[in-house]
Amino acid sequence: MKTYLDVLYERIPEEIKQFVKKQGDIAIRINKILRDKEISSKEFAKKIGMKESQLNKIIRGDANPTLKTITKIEAAIDFDIIVVPEYGDK
Question: What is the mean pLDDT of residues 22-30?
Answer without folding.
Answer: 94
